[in-house]
Amino acid sequence: MRILVVNSGSSSLKLRVLDGDDVAASADLPAIDPADAEAGAKLEEEIAALGPVDAVGHRIVHGGVRFAAPIEIDDAVVQELASLSELAPLHQPRCLAAVDAARRALPDQPHVAAFDTAFHATIPDAAATYALPAEWRARWPIRRYGFHGLSHAWATRRAGELLGRPGDRLRLVTCHLGAGASLAAVAGGRSVDTTMGFTPLEGLVMATRSGSVDPGLVLWLQQQGGLHVDAVADGLERRAGLAGLAGSADMREVLAGAARGAPDATLARDVYVHRLRASIAAMAAALRGVDAVVFTGGVGEHAPEIRRRAVDGLDFLGLQVDEARNSATATDDLIDRRISVDGPTAILVIESREDLEIARQVGSFLG
Predict the structure, then answer these.
(1) For residue 330, is pLDDT > 80?
(2) Taking the CB of residue 161, how many other CB atoms lie within 10 A of it?
(3) Hey, which of 115, 163, 326, 336 has its CA 20 to 30 A from 215?
């Protein structure tokens, strides 16, 4: 079965045609602005140029309460997913714009949604529940959903292969570090905790997102600072994170600036690592121990300095980087690898293959 995977993120759109585990064709584009009709038309042209496919799999960021497994996309499903856009304003509209263009380009093939939130549907109530008034929780579907589930699922599967151990016997902290960033605590192949919550804004410092902040600060900015709710939302989603601290959302530029001694870049790096290190320890606590920490995503795969700094001081968890392994340049034969010293607790780098995870889910759904 040839499956076209449409992986739409907050800033990029990746098209991959998978024939089994092999990439038969691909294209990388900017994420679609839902208001840009020309971008939609260009996506249709790109899809047509990739050749015939049997099915299409779409990465959908937010599935809400209802969508915890793959589902075939029709107009009713699109409408329901659009209603969740306010929970993931940077992602969901772009995902759905890509869905619309792909359905126009390939109207006769089945289109299947695979959800970033689905992997975290297994987290227990203690980890999923906010301590909010009962009437709020009864009125609205307020809970911690978690995101990047497709990436965490693939990292979990691949870690078991690299370690030669069954997934149901592993305790993993998987670290998806890209423009968006989140961690997952995975026990026996199932997510039991994660850093993102009701929206993708909670948790780690990210490229343009603040991560967790005191909710009292948000109230203060509106009540005392005089900012409109839209200005607060824009600031937290699009002008915070690395961009807000260092003036750049690109970790490569931040690290280069820190290496030159630039104060803003150094602060941005240190704030990012401080939150990341603390969250790795928190995920390990949720697991009551850890067998491996996995780094994936653009930053996780390509920033050895961030990996080294993130586990510095976590030797009480058995985590110790091997400097030579960590700094080795990745090659085709050295992408998925161990970067820790030999011992019972491993640190792994695994290439993010959301495309393979989506294709597996689509193939399973379609039988």
Answers:
(1) no
(2) 11
(3) 115
Beta bridge partners of 282: none
Residues with active-site annotation: 116
User: What pLDDT, on a 0 to 100 scale, did the predictor assign at position 36?
Assistant: 86
State phi, psi for 133 to the nearest 5 degrees: -55, 140
Handedness of CA 247, 248, 253, 259 (dihedral sign): positive
Six-digit token string for 334: 């050295």
At 208-249, the pLDDT tens digits run: 999 999 999 999 999 999 999 999 999 999 999 999 999 999
Out of 123-132, 166-175, 257-266, 281-290, least confident range? 166-175
What residue type is assigned to position 126 of the chain? A
State how far the Cα of 235 lies from the Cα of 241, in Å rounded to an integer: 10
What is the DSSP code (8-state) at residue 195? Answer: S
DSSP, collapsed to helix, strand or coil, labels residue 168 as helix
C-alpha–C-alpha distance, residues 284 and 281, integer Å: 5
The interaxial angle of helices 75-82 and 92-105, nearest 10 deg, is 160
Buried b (16+ CB within 10 A) or exposed e, 264-276: ebbebbebbbebb
Residue 177's DSSP bridge partners are: 181
* Structure-token pair, residue 258: 């820190």
Q: How distant is the alpha carbon of residue 231 from its chain centre?
A: 25
Residue whose pair of structure tokens reads 């906010």 in the numeric block: 130
